[in-house]
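Forgive a beginner's question, but might I ask you for the amino acids of a protein and the tokens describing how it folds?
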Amino acid sequence: MASAAQLCPVATKSLALTHATGCSAAPSVNTKQALIPRSLDGTVCRAGGNALRLLAAKESSGRRSQPAQSLTPVCESFQSAAEEVSSVSRRSLLSASAGLALSLSALGASSPATAADIDLEEWEKVELPLEPGVVLLDVAFVPNDPKHGFLLGTRQTLLETKDGGKTWVPRSIAAAEEEDFNYRFNSISFNGEDGWIVGKPAILLKTTNGGTSWERVPLSARLPGNPVLITATGKDSAEMITDEGAIYVTSNGAYTWKAAVEETVSATLNRTVSSGISGASFYTGTFSSVNRAPNGSYVAVSSRGNFFMTWEPGQSYWVPHNRNNARRIQNMGWRADGGLWLLTRGGGLFFSEGTGVTESFVEAKIAARGFGVLDVGYRNQNEAWAAGGSGILLKTTDGGKNWARDKLADNIAANLYAVRFVNDKQGFVLGNDKVLLRYRGLAA
């Protein structure tokens, strides 16, 4: 296997990050030559590169306005009072108006409750030492110490727990503070004491002692896209994927890496423009979401949500697929039985027919009330939870045939972006504005 120094790529034309129409195809990039990260003994390359924002979920979700209670009668009373005091002095009228305005405020809708004010039946709110505006993105626990875990997010957020997620404290990594970047930590994964973190701008962090200390693994500045998902697969072994579809594996603690695909997604699509995939011609975009199955297969959604792609171990290229619905795809992932789930913008939830990869999906009836559902997480084979905009939280206990909304979550003034179950007894829902829900199950 070639060393990282030998695999340092020569300068190549960077790929555009947006969709182009009526232009020539992007240059083909061979991942085995241009996508290899540098190892610890190679020349340090500055992390860099930009990519489209991965939280496309924000485009279709937002906070709900609270209903204005009893506003109409008050307004009518105010109008009548104004007509009756037409002969009163201006100062008296202003005084009366001020009093009526206070009444309006008292009778108006209450402000949305935060998650701390909500007592959910199966979830509890966890207080976090964070500033408002941080979006939580991933959580993982050390297998050898199931109460010891880490929580990631935007604005270089890294929190640590040693009590199973009941309390969290901030952590800083010196290796990530050497440069003037505000990193977005996208993904974290552990296998034994080995742990990995990836983020944007392109950064890769590694621990061999369960997170007690972290070191930075230099990446090539020419790495197409940014790492969005990392999976610890064994001792000194990991698999990393970027938002342009480059997949790498290491089996020697990141000393060297091997490309698992021959080329980027853009190169594949532009080489096969006659594939019949809608929206794939002259594609130079990135993934908006990527999810990995336990068997190593991937499903990814194009940045505009107009098609999806899959990859299975042993394949040289990504395989594109048409969506079966007029609505654009929001997110996709794997069911507990190996099938696919698919979310569309506007709150649609679909399940593939059978297991494995297919383009045939059946819609499930859910009470999303028009708010975007952003993620689905499985607690076991039959029970799953779906979360989304404005505190939408849904549950199924029959594998997705029927869904019920947790109405107690409706007043959470936050978007819920991710559902993560570590095991059937340990799960979390990650949101923005310091919202973290911890699974506690039904009371006995």
Q: What stands out?
A: Residues 71-107 form one domain. The first helix runs from residue 31 to 34. Helices lie at 31-34, 71-84, 90-107, 265-271.
